[in-house]
Amino acid sequence: MDRVTIPAADPASGGLATGAVARLLGVAPTTLRSWDRRYGIGPAAREGGRHRRWTGADIAALRDMCRLTSAGLPPAEAARTVLAGTSRDAPVPGSGRASRDPGPLPLGRARRECRGLARAAVRLDAPAMDELLTAVLDRYGLPAAWDEVMMPTLHAVGRKWETAGERYVEVEHLLSWHVSGALRAFSAARPAGPGAGVSLLACVPGETHTLALEALAATLAQQAVPVRMFGAALPAGALEEAVRRTGPAAVVLWAQSRSTASCSLVARVAAIEWGVRGARRRPVVLVAGPGWAGEPPPGARYPAGLADAVDVLATLGAR
Question: Model pTM?
Answer without folding.
Answer: 0.63
